[in-house]
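Escalation from tier 1.

The customer reports that the assembly of four entities below gives different structure tokens on two consecutive runs. Tier 1 could not reproduce it. I'm attaching the input and our single run for tier 2 to review.
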Amino acid sequence: MIEAGPKEACGVYGVWTHAQEKVDVARLAFFALYALQHRGQESAGIATSDGRTARQHKGMGLVAQVFNEANLRPLTGHLAIGHNRYSTTGNSVAANAQPHLIETIHGPLAVSHNGNLTNTDALRRALLQRGVGLISTTDSEVITQMLAAPPPGGEPNGPEWGKRIQAFMAAAEGAYSLVILTHDAIYAVRDPRGLRPLCIGELVSRSGRKVGWTVASESCALATVGARFLREVAPGEIIRLDRNGVQASQGAPVAARRGMCIFEYVYFARPDSVLEGQTVHEVRQRLGARLAEEAPVDADVVIGVPDSATPAAIGYTLASGIPYSEGLIKNRYIGRTFIEPTERLRQSSVSLKYNPLRANLEGKRVVLVDDSIVRGNTAGPLVQLLREGGAREVHVRVSSPPVRHPCFMGIDMATHEELIAFRMRVPAIQHHIGADSLAYISHAGMVAAVGPQAPTGQASTPHCAACFDGDYPLDVTAQLKVRSRRKCAFDD
Amino acid sequence: MIEAGPKEACGVYGVWTHAQEKVDVARLAFFALYALQHRGQESAGIATSDGRTARQHKGMGLVAQVFNEANLRPLTGHLAIGHNRYSTTGNSVAANAQPHLIETIHGPLAVSHNGNLTNTDALRRALLQRGVGLISTTDSEVITQMLAAPPPGGEPNGPEWGKRIQAFMAAAEGAYSLVILTHDAIYAVRDPRGLRPLCIGELVSRSGRKVGWTVASESCALATVGARFLREVAPGEIIRLDRNGVQASQGAPVAARRGMCIFEYVYFARPDSVLEGQTVHEVRQRLGARLAEEAPVDADVVIGVPDSATPAAIGYTLASGIPYSEGLIKNRYIGRTFIEPTERLRQSSVSLKYNPLRANLEGKRVVLVDDSIVRGNTAGPLVQLLREGGAREVHVRVSSPPVRHPCFMGIDMATHEELIAFRMRVPAIQHHIGADSLAYISHAGMVAAVGPQAPTGQASTPHCAACFDGDYPLDVTAQLKVRSRRKCAFDD
Amino acid sequence: MIEAGPKEACGVYGVWTHAQEKVDVARLAFFALYALQHRGQESAGIATSDGRTARQHKGMGLVAQVFNEANLRPLTGHLAIGHNRYSTTGNSVAANAQPHLIETIHGPLAVSHNGNLTNTDALRRALLQRGVGLISTTDSEVITQMLAAPPPGGEPNGPEWGKRIQAFMAAAEGAYSLVILTHDAIYAVRDPRGLRPLCIGELVSRSGRKVGWTVASESCALATVGARFLREVAPGEIIRLDRNGVQASQGAPVAARRGMCIFEYVYFARPDSVLEGQTVHEVRQRLGARLAEEAPVDADVVIGVPDSATPAAIGYTLASGIPYSEGLIKNRYIGRTFIEPTERLRQSSVSLKYNPLRANLEGKRVVLVDDSIVRGNTAGPLVQLLREGGAREVHVRVSSPPVRHPCFMGIDMATHEELIAFRMRVPAIQHHIGADSLAYISHAGMVAAVGPQAPTGQASTPHCAACFDGDYPLDVTAQLKVRSRRKCAFDD
Amino acid sequence: MIEAGPKEACGVYGVWTHAQEKVDVARLAFFALYALQHRGQESAGIATSDGRTARQHKGMGLVAQVFNEANLRPLTGHLAIGHNRYSTTGNSVAANAQPHLIETIHGPLAVSHNGNLTNTDALRRALLQRGVGLISTTDSEVITQMLAAPPPGGEPNGPEWGKRIQAFMAAAEGAYSLVILTHDAIYAVRDPRGLRPLCIGELVSRSGRKVGWTVASESCALATVGARFLREVAPGEIIRLDRNGVQASQGAPVAARRGMCIFEYVYFARPDSVLEGQTVHEVRQRLGARLAEEAPVDADVVIGVPDSATPAAIGYTLASGIPYSEGLIKNRYIGRTFIEPTERLRQSSVSLKYNPLRANLEGKRVVLVDDSIVRGNTAGPLVQLLREGGAREVHVRVSSPPVRHPCFMGIDMATHEELIAFRMRVPAIQHHIGADSLAYISHAGMVAAVGPQAPTGQASTPHCAACFDGDYPLDVTAQLKVRSRRKCAFDD
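Tier 1 run:
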């Protein structure tokens, strides 16, 4: 997928270490966020605690831009959490950077959040009604203020963070993977559907001593900071990290309809991360192989849209026997630029990002593998670019089904109308992008390729694939009303 | 090649358009520099002229960080030059950003320079002796001030930029690809050996009208701004772009020993650039294929060090029949960070950049293709990383010969002592990096793979390969004295 | 008084205009804060409302540094409040800048605060207990969150800002002059003792149409923005500005012990401000005149410590007949510098700020008038400077009594121990500073000079003069415990 | 004088110390520039040398904004120069900040310049003709590059800075007080007319050891850094400071028409500075006294426009017997603001800076003393402000004659047309500003008051008073052509 900014996610991280080990937890958090940078490039932040005082620094930009030695060094302590926020064009303001840190009657409390609550409006209203003033429009402030209040029926004078988190989970709807810092513990919480990923690792010294524990959105961050992967946080689970190690409890019953977002496999997660026991790269290769079986084509070369579709392209090659090559070179230094292209350049804005490799394309029948098509703005120019680069035929193969439904669980997939596959059938899309042929993997094919096999007796996939099939795991009636202003849609 | 900062280069760009076409030349330069970002990430700058007044903006950082609408908009005019400077740790100061712009008796003059003069000290001294004060330590200031003076025997009152450039070429030694802006023309100049690349393109309107002409370090920048590649600037040639189009003249006789730096093929240039009629990607694939022939190995999978060695790895796959796969995932967001890793993390600093893909490595005999080994700091950790990822055997194959000699023609390849292949023979290096086997392509193999065939009657390669064979195309006695403090070296 | 940073205060401002008058209220607030800059130089901020949405900008530094056209222009609306915060060395952080803006169930709410609550700890604790998380250590956040909650017994669904403010006033102890912005009204509130100043003005168009109303800490801000002074806000009063004009109500009963801080007359307020019907400059002249009567001296010239003591020096001159002159030149550009003087320069740090005028001092007997002596660090060096400038005798006269007690009502006057007049009797101070004579105005003299005459039947002064006499208008037992760690003090 | 930005000047500073004394010369320069801040607020810079290497830092803004510990600390060495540049609206760019530092064949060379060369165009042209490219439009770059060249007939290989400076003095016309830093010496140079001030001081340790020598635009800077005033640099003199102390030589013959700018006495210099043996404050008092004799008025109170006219107002008081008081309060925090006042506020823009003191004005006949009237934009609003403050009559008295001619020797006094006294006779000005009476001091009165008495046989004043009488001490025909586009002027 090559479009700019069609999706929203975040990266979360937390670490607890024994104070006497003198681990520089802020630095650890920095490198973990660095490894999770693909999950959010708008802002970054770290909060630490030394058992009494919490400190934080956050700012706009990449983690390497936000932090320097001068602002990292004061972040002392033996526990820390961190956050990367995704860049959306709209509300990109410093006040929304996370973690959100407050003082409560029981000391400091900071929250890093990945996901999207679907009943935020009601939760905000309840807080305002209770007389709490809010300073931002973020979910994470809402969560923090909800945790600051004694839980209904709870002992008002005890911290009882566990009970407070349970009370939050009882009230909140939607997707959330949370990492929470109190003065002396880290909590990791995953919503009852387990929509967004979250995993636990262990920090071990060279001599094998357990130094601490750590949680992260993806296992690639654990590998980067040298932590040993333990397991994923289960849906509805609350994990507490403190001097007693990893303590698990069920914070809310697992939802009837559960399952992690399948788009993490398709595009989001880093290929070297392990989700549900599978390396993402491996899954993407399987998707590509399945795609080759379902939609074979007589061609000379397979290329992927770099870099996200490369694993699927390799899978297509392995299954089809058509040689793999590189046909598009991506500018490695593409970053956020605020310079608008001229009219002349805008016409071919993909050419600012990609150039074709004539030597590998000239006179050839090309299979172009992409991981997904969301808005469909750039597939057309890419096909055109390959033709200009000498390709005789261009056959587009997509390793996920058509995206026809917006996501309300943490990926900003725009409205129905912006989704090309909501507006057009596949043949129309093929014509629109000018490909010689176009095929998507089937829904069943994707489910089978992703695996793992659905538990016996459970008919459907164990993942949320609502963006493909519209089968939302929770009630999104309100959201659909707001987002989709167009009433009628074609029946595919 | 995966080491940080072992080489120095720059990107240069220039564009001349007919004023009535109202082309936003600063914006064009911006996107061209964006495409040339791989040649330098320390600073960026653009200078423009509207026929009378020159304006410029430059700053530290990536081109997308240096420029915004507010500082780009005032850069009006119909001709422009630009520059990307490489990031070295030492003299990274704003005063050294280019272009270097001065006022002369004949109006504004700005210079963008890629390369390295080998007699800078003498040239500086001559300027200082002449009573010119200098404000920086850059070659480009020296060049600009040399051009500001009337050429010996020249008419002092006429601009005669061509003659001035010839006088500069007569005095200067070393590597230089220059783009020069005067009030109404752009000059492009390449040293008599043609050591660094430089090419010419044509801007054509949709209706086929010639809008202007443009020069760039690499053709990928021409493609990005939608210009049509015309040809390369020849060694010793002076190109003048003005209302009369492209005017060429020979500024200095072509050197007896000539030839572009072969390292541009090996590592430097963007794979989609065309050098001497060949796409760089294609050459790298050929290097990989030749390497497979010269140094075959019984293995299960071929992987490349991402991203620079991917084309060579693909070439190795095609020639050997061993399947290609991805085995190392690179953090796409690695940028400059000023945060030092902790002791713990420093031990495995490559793991901040790369993670292994267990699924593709587990139990396998792996061929790891790299494009070059310079200092040898990271090959060892990478081999180790692959083993931790499950690889049964790791066979390192390098698609360029051992780097044994420093470069004084524009690539900062450190001193002799820092080059691992100067200090160690290949078996020692293999042991040092812990590989099951190690092989480099042969010198002859590289020359043959790069091509094109040397013209009849010319014995040696038509490229500078001094970093591999020590056969410098010009006198570097003085440089060698300074750089190599160790007297004896082994004979391989 | 010439010491750096011995006191803390703030400037507050608010304006309400009829929307159809299209007054640029943010700009008005800017210039009002500019006029109130002497009350606080650490940070500045402005919040506006257009009837629905509130916007704000704030930052560290002088108001002219914090605001520019780019950040002022988005502050649209027809009502605004502003704030200048005093620079203290300790908690000088951006998060403490005011106004403090939150969203409540009834829309936006922003608060600017001048003063110091004496029961902040209890109020914070009550909020935290109620489950409200706090993000700063400021009084203003506490006030805002207190106002966000429905008042006890209040109708939870109605805004009833007036009742909420009353509930706040019932709970809060200490000094506060507040300016509050809701979506459509401005409130101005003064504590029941009227400790800090606050006044109301009227904006009238050239044709005499009433355009709006405005409130400010001091009348000098009204004059600067062209508003007509109406009256002061009375102790305990709540003023509401909206489309119905100025509506007053008593928010809390006037305290038994009431009276504005007399130090506003002595040093704080701008000399052109009118407090309680008197121009501050005039009061300072009277203080100087009274001082001349109480403590005459046979001398040749009267000089004041510039600029704050100039009015008292003029008063001394008028009453004594001794000619006035300038004897010390102050560097007008003294601002905050972060450069530490060298050892050599530190010895005479007052000489970085002042130079003596030999021509006016040579051989003369000099009366040096100062408005107050707090820590006593600089009086000595100043006397020394005058002697070096040629003064034959230096007689120090202080137009306020010895400062012996810390302030807890909005002026940061340090602890008992830091006050020189708490540690030493007057003769010891005279010896300490090396003056030929030293005299302070008497307490009764100050009270008489400040006026206005105390209402019949009220024995004491109608002002708070606790820093001079220790007679605090409210219970400060807790504060005294914290601040004064030394148990015994001399009996004067 | 109260107008914004009508004049241009600069502050220069230099210090040489014995290396073994380990004086922090950059810090000394910082505090000296701090004391000279009134001479320029646009930019500040410091260059140092440790005998071999020169270092510098400069930037836009006040000296306290430009420097912090981090950028001051690297400025090591035992000699330094510094510069404050005046803020003009036009060419306020960082590239023009001084000192201007270059490398020459004889090592580093840096120049700080106060003044204005009148033949800059010819000097620039000569440099450009010689083939030297220039990077700014400043005089100081021109001077530096002139000094970089071997003097005509000079030994090209010796530094001979003295001869080079002489050669510069022979070629340059206009006003210049220069402080020059070479690798091991400081030079101070004053133009042959001595138009701008420059003085020498001595740094002595507490034990009386001579630590070093220092030069500054004004003696107030010497006092601030604890240096002992020695003498002024004489017109045409070159002073060299090095290990041998202060060495003087005559660099150019003293001009026939010589004399320091009289406006330094009138307005520019700090009142505590000593010029030609006289304290500036004392001279201003004498000007006020003379003004009282020449233009008496029956009035109740004398007030000065703060702060510059206060000494003259005191002088007027002393001579007239009319009591002195303060009638206008100036906002002490007026700094550069980039916020435009609203239409409403613009009408009375002086009220953003000044408020009247009703108590001192009500019903009174007021003498308003100003030091000068240049453009005449603000005298009218000030008179109006006093009337609004209750003044019954306002009599304006100006302690310098009408300014009728632009200055080309370092004060940017605009063009003829912008000078109100060029366009109008005094009665018209009085009517224009709405005063009850208006009088300026006579030319003869000013000359007599300033003193010292002209040497016998020299008819005219020993000062340049061209802005008052048009009697320029050098040829300004070219400048007059450019500046005055209006041909006819009235005959007064």
